[in-house]
Amino acid sequence: MGEVRKVEIELSEQLAQSVDAAIQSGEYADLSEILTQELTFWSIERKQRLADLRAAIDEGLASGAPKEITPGWFDDVLFRAQSQATR
Fold first, then answer.
1. What residue spans of 1-87 are helical by DSSP H?
2. pTM of the model
3. How many Å separate Cα 39 from the centre of its chain?
4. Distance CA 22, CA 29 (A)
5. Cα torsion for 37, 40, 45, 46, to the nearest 10°?
């Protein structure tokens, strides 16, 4: 785990009650365990979102020259999206 840094946080009353309930039920030992687990999940998800964004950028760059956006371009994109959504 390496070095440990102590931090202070403020929680809304509703969130604090949820944390207390999770600890009292035995789901977690303490607030530190909850935060460590959730921040680990957050870090993994963040890395994945960044990787997905980089992949989308790379895909866009590799797709060729930009195309001109005409006045009807957005309407066409919207129409195609709505058509796919109703399938």
1. 13-24, 31-62, 73-85
2. 0.62
3. 12
4. 9
5. 140
Question: How many Å is the Cα radius of gyration of the chain?
Answer: 23
Q: Which residues are within 8 A (CB) of 34 and not within 5 positions of it... i.e. 6 or more apart? A: 19, 22, 23, 28
> Which tens digit of pLDDT belongs to each residue from 47-71?
999 999 999 999 999 999 988 888 8
Cα–Cα distance for residue pair 55/61, rounded to 1 Å: 10
Residue 37 sits at φ, ψ, to 5 deg, of -65, -50
Percent of the chain exceeding pLDDT 70 equals 99
Residues 13 and 19: their CA atoms lie apart, in Å, by 10
Residue type (1 letter), 19? V
Crossing angle, helix 13-24 and helix 31-62, to 10 degrees?
110
